[in-house]
Amino acid sequence: MLLDSNLESVDKAESTVLRIAGELGFPEDDLHSIGMAVREAAVNAVVHGNRYNSRKKVHLNVTHGPGRLIITIADEGEGFDIDALPDPLAQDNLLRQSGRGLLLIRAFVDEFELRRRQPHGTEVRLVKYLANAS
Amino acid sequence: MSVKLTTRQVGDVTVIDANGRITLGEGASTFRDTVRDLAAAGNKKLLLNLGDVTYIDSSGIGELVSGFTTVTNHGGQLKLLGLNKRIKDLLQITKLYTVFEVHDDEASAIRSFA
């Protein structure tokens, strides 16, 4: 699914993923976590990756395997060095206004992977396990 | 749905009642503008009631932090009231529980400004 680089797309990404997650049977608390992670990842793609550039798209892909939901969100930006990001939990950074998105994503999913997308951009892969999956 | 903010006075404490979502965009900017204006107007005791806030994202958290800094820089105090479990969890994850003073009932929150 291709989304425009605007805030409305963040809502679309969230609602799309939550609809699928709901159909898979994720409980309410997990739905909240999934929604949070997707929103943060989508915001990163729109704001930091594509910088609201109308010519750049956000790529959303949602699949599921046995007992898991797999979400990838990618932008078409310049990419970045994740190791260069300030640690939002460092004492000196606690009062920073921004920089907590990746922290929250990692807190709300079971697997998190960030990689460069070819030819441009960054892709995050999020996996949420469905508890008690048969 | 964005956030709706209303203010009321309880003695010399300004209570900001928030209702809705504090997220990137209108919600976060509404909150930022309100706190900034209150601080600039000389309100030094601000209690942010998040009891009816259903959702807050990292941008919303950022505006809480920004508000805290703004009020503190004006020589005032900003405290939080009525956080639901999910928002409390966010403050734990971000270690902001070590920054904000959080209360569960309004009366004790108001007394704490004395």
Characterization of the model:
By secondary structure, chain A is α+β, with helices and mostly antiparallel strands. Chain A has one domain: Histidine kinase-like ATPase, C-terminal domain (Heat Shock Protein 90, 2-Layer Sandwich), CATH 3.30.565.10. Chain A has helices at residues 7-24, 28-49, 101-108, and strands spanning 2-4, 57-65, 68-74, 111-116, 122-129. Chain A has a five-stranded antiparallel sheet with strand order 1-2-3-5-4, with helices on one face. Chain A starts with a strand and ends in a 5-residue tail after the last strand. A five-stranded mixed sheet of chain B has the order 1-2-3-4-5. The model of chain B has no long low-confidence stretch (mean pLDDT 93). Chain B starts with a strand and ends with a helix. Chain B has one domain: STAS domain (Transcription Regulator spoIIAA). Helix content of chain B is 40%, strand content 32%. Chain B is globular and about 30 Å long. Chain B is α/β, with parallel strands linked by helices and 114 residues long. The A-B interface holds A 7, 10, 32, 36, 39-40, 43, 47, 88-89, 94-98, 100-101, 103-104, 107 and B 23-25, 57-59, 61-63, 65-66, 68-69, 86, 90, 93-96, 98-99.
